[in-house]
Design brief:
The structure is a single chain. By secondary structure, the chain is an alpha/beta fold. It folds into two domains: 25-171, 3-Layer(aba) Sandwich (Rossmann fold), CATH 3.40.50; 177-277, Nitrogenase molybdenum iron protein domain (Rossmann fold, 3-Layer(aba) Sandwich), CATH 3.40.50. The chain has ten helices and eight strands. The protein has helices at residues 3-18, 36-46, 69-76, 90-102, 128-145, 150-175, 191-196, 213-226, 240-248, 263-277, and strands spanning 29-33, 50-54, 80-83, 107-110, 182-185, 200-203, 230-234, 252-256. It has a four-stranded parallel β-sheet. Strands 6-5-7-8 form a four-stranded parallel β-sheet, sandwiched between helices. α7 links the parallel β5 (182-185) and β6 (200-203). The radius of gyration is 22 Å and the shape is globular. The chain starts with a helix and ends with a helix.
Length: 280
């Protein structure tokens, strides 16, 4: 072989060695999740070993969003689907049946299997108990899909669990003296969080029912009785009614994002927000 003709081959081999720390696209596990925070868990555990498809985009409601045909195609091509598993997300079951029929080899796991769910409340990812369960279940499922990377997944799992434990400690130190305190939200996205840390979530919106003037008046009276001066709204949602309540109680509207892709950062931000929003 001509020495010059070997040069491109040598260059390709050199590039392969340099990029060896990254998983080639052909070896990536195609994973579909329902919401953005789940993508954080998969990416923390799998790193470049997985390509993540998120069904519900930023700013959409998990309770009402309908996946696009393109998203359903990506779902049916996935090797692994990780569902939230909590009640209140009916489309998971509706669309998973179709996707599973098209791709019988796709593994489907419930990331919160073993969790005690709140009736009708899908926001289980705001629970640190659920986060620990999710981390373990997802790591196990990734290992089944790519056994050769099992040790790597377990190492990443230990790191993620350590971060969750550290976050738990931070939250308890920050709001530990607020046991029994109430905070008011427009959309009831933080019920699991409140239950775990001894807080009371008061929600303006109830099970998706229309919010009328009489209900708003009751919430205003309740906020005054509890000394609540802040109303927490979900980032990206219409805050018109929330602003009306805030004016009545002489308070303010503050935003929180339970669907932030960086789950750890989002939870830290919410805990910090509560230290100023909660009134005992």
């Amino acid at each position: 072989m001509n020495p010059r003709s070997r040069l491109p081959i040598l260059c390709i081999l050199a590039l392969s060695l340099i990029s060896g720390a990254e998983c080639p696209a052909a070896e990536q596990i195609r994973v579909t999740v329902t919401i953005l925070p789940q993508a954080y868990f998969v990416e923390r555990l799998a790193g470049p070993r997985a390509k993540v498809n998120v069904l519900i985009p930023k700013g959409a409601s998990p309770e009402t969003y309908e996946p696009t045909p393109q998203q359903l195609v990506a779902l049916s091509e996935s090797r692994l689907y990780i569902k939230v598993g909590a009640p209140g997300l009916p489309f998971e079951e509706e669309h998973l049946k179709t996707a599973a029929g098209r791709n019988p080899k796709m593994r489907i796991i419930n990331m919160t299997e073993g969790m005690a769910y709140r009736e009708g409340d899908p926001h289980v990812w705001t629970s640190l108990v659920a986060a620990r369960l999710a981390a373990r279940h997802i790591a196990a499922a990734l290992t089944v899909c790519a056994p050769a990377s099992g040790e790597e997944f377990q190492k990443n799992l230990r790191g993620l669990l350590a971060d969750i434990d550290s976050l738990d400690g931070e939250i308890r130190r920050a709001i530990g003296r607020m046991q029994g305190a109430a905070f008011m939200v427009y959309h009831p996205a933080w019920g699991y969080f409140a239950a775990e840390y001894g807080l009371v979530q008061l929600a303006v919106e109830e099970e998706g029912k229309p919010v009328n003037a009489a209900h708003i008046r009751r919430m205003v009276d309740l906020a005054r009785a509890k000394g609540i001066r802040s109303l927490i709204v979900q980032k990206g949602f219409d805050a018109k009614s929330a602003r009306a309540i805030a004016r009545e109680i002489g308070g303010e509207v503050v935003e929180a994002d339970p669907l932030e892709r960086d789950w750890l950062r989002g939870m830290k931000r919410f805990a910090a927000l509560l230290t100023t929003a909660v009134r005992k």
